[in-house]
Amino acid sequence: MTVQIPRPAAEKARGRARTTPPPPPGRHRKAQGSAGALPYLLLLPALAITTVLLGYPLVKNGILSFQKLGMKELIQHLTEWNGFDNYTDVLGGEDFWRVTLRTVLFTAVNVTLIMVLGTLVGLLLARLGRKMRLTLLMALVLAWAMPIIAATTVYQWLFAERYGVVNWILDKLGWHSMADYSWTSSQFSTFFVITVMLVWTSIPFVAINLYAATTTIAKELYEAAGLDGAGAWRTFTSVTFPFIKPFLLATTFLEIIWIFKAFPHVYAINGGGPDRLTETLPVYAFVEGVGNQHYGMGAAISVLTILVLMGLTSYYIRMVMKQEREDS
Amino acid sequence: MRRSFIGRFWPNATAMVLFVIFLFPVYWMFATSFKPTGDIISEDPVWFPMDPTFEHYRTAFDADNFWNFWKNSLTVTLLAVGFSLLIALIASFALARMRFRGRTGIILIFMFAQMAPWEVMVISVYMLVRDADMLNSLVPLTLFYTVMVLPLTILTLRTYVAAVPKDLEEAAMVDGATRVQAFRKVIFPLLAPGLMATSLFGFITAWNEFPMVLVLNKEAEAQTLPLWLSQFQTQFGDDWGATMAAASLFALPILLLFLYLQRKVTSGLTAGAVKG
User: Fold this and answer.
1) B189 min Cα distance to partner chain A (Å)
2) Less Cβ crowding at N or C end of chain B, within 10 Å?
3) Considering the entire predicted model, what is its pTM?
4) ipTM here
């Protein structure tokens, strides 16, 4: 949690450093801008383990995507190259494009809901009294900490056809056709259950972080805004929002990654069904690759999945990199 | 007067509604796990377990290899979180405090690493682990989970380290502390909330991981709790009491850990923020 909270503080510190003369370089540094081999040494373990354990499977995955690899080849350790066949098959078929479009829409809807509602809940937390805030925080933390497989199990029970409490409530509210409704029988309703669950588990992260970020805003800024006669909305747009903007961007970036990659949530609710209509890209890659034992095809889909995800997040990465360069 | 009443009423009312919405699924899981089967399959929901029973928990405890799954999950999660914290802490110091060639590139590597869709790379991971003859072992799981949580841990800790004023460390050293002492006595306590926050992340990621262990460890002796729960559900799917008892057991440790650490983390953050 709380990825970005220290951000404002860090930026403040940096801002201060910029206005005051730079502190004398530490003893261990020979000159400004070079710290010798030390930083590389400190980074070595992290880079080594990441390169080996992430880099190798990534490269291997890329290589596999150019092979015909099924159960037989896997067991007998055969390598059979088939060039771009996997890619032409995937890209030539209708399924991939439909699934990609579906995944992008799914991500957009969920991330929008999570960011808007999460921000509102975060701002609410900041307005509440101490007791009420702790009460709500407790519920948020519990929803957030709920392990995914446990959450999917509970949501299946909440939305169960018979004896599910959601159907009972809808029936009592006068929606009698919902009394024995099977939520996993259609594409739309299955996605609805998945979305409710994802939004439920994801809002706490955004809300708690946002609340923590607002606690770092100096009270004087609000007082000044009050003296200037700014209303609630004006105060929000000119004091609160600029402060939480970097945090919102970072959280949106993380949520896009997390929602796009959400695998167990989608897979465990209904296995991508009914009729594979709720398969998102990760689930599609898994069902095609592992489930149907088209391993080479699965690898090709996963390469494409990575490319789509990189496309979705490139704007943010570019922005962060620009900022990093300006800072250093 | 009236304004402040209205000003307080709506936020509090909304908060109460949200409290119910967010707590209900968790409550419903625990409540169902204690209800006799008759209460679970009743036409009108029984909102509170009036005659609590432990029968469902007995079913869960009696499942094959129960303790094994627990032992494996705890081992893998704690080791992965420990390793990643250690590696990330030293890496984040380099990234937050030092200027060197290739720094931006290294940050970029970790940002991309964070996007790694592990779920769709399971085949290549499987082949790698198989060729190393390490299937059905906890070692590759621990290592991969370490790499999974490492990028976010580094990127997060980096901002925490950057927020600790450098003067503090130097002041301690002027007072005669060695570099290591300065770190342990002055910097480490200030980083504690950050370390807790990031370990929570790591903990939930590793505790939850499902597709990789599904593909790598086919033998029950080397599997973890998410698999146990999903198999349990396949077996006892219609027995909602037993399924909810199993889900409760799986969720409980992490729910307690979060509740316990969360308060420390937020209070630490608020205090840190005030001090600036």
Assistant:
1) 15
2) N
3) 0.87
4) 0.87
